[in-house]
Amino acid sequence: MSQGQIKLSRRNFLFALGAGGAAGAAAIAAKTVPQAQPQADPSGEGKKKTRGYQASEHVRNYYRTAKV
C-alpha cells in the first residue's frame, strides 16, 4: 500500500512543479509586455479620409483578366 502513496505524491509533485512553472512564465510575460494606451483625438482630424471605391486602372485590369 505504501507504493500507491509514493506514486500519488510523486505525481502531485510533478503536477505542482509544472503548474508553478507555467504560472511563473505567465507572470513574467505579463510583466515584460508593455500595455498600449490608446490616445483619443478629440478633434477627429487624425482620421484618414477615403473617397470610397475607386475603379482604377489596376482594378479594371483585374476584372478584365478574371472574366470567365
Key attributes of the depicted protein:
mainly alpha, 2 helices, 0% strand, 68 residues
**Which structural class should the secondary elements be placed in?**
mainly alpha
What's the total count of β strands?
A: 0
Number of distinct helices: 2
Low-confidence stretches: none
How does the overall form come out from the CA principal axes? Answer: elongated
First and last CA, distance: 77 Å
Radius of gyration: 30 Å
SSE string: HH
Beta-strand percent range: under 5%
Mean pLDDT: 78
Q: What percent of the residues sit in helical stretches (DSSP H or I)? A: 55-70%
Biggest sheet details: none
Short description:
The chain has 68 residues and is an all-alpha fold. Helices cover 59% and strands 0% of the residues. The protein has a domain at 1-33.
Protein described:
By secondary structure, the protein is an all-alpha fold. The protein has a domain of 33 residues. 59% of the residues lie in helices and 0% in strands. The protein has two helices and no strands. It is elongated and about 80 Å long.
What is the secondary structure topology, with strand pairs?
Layout: H1 2-32, H2 57-65
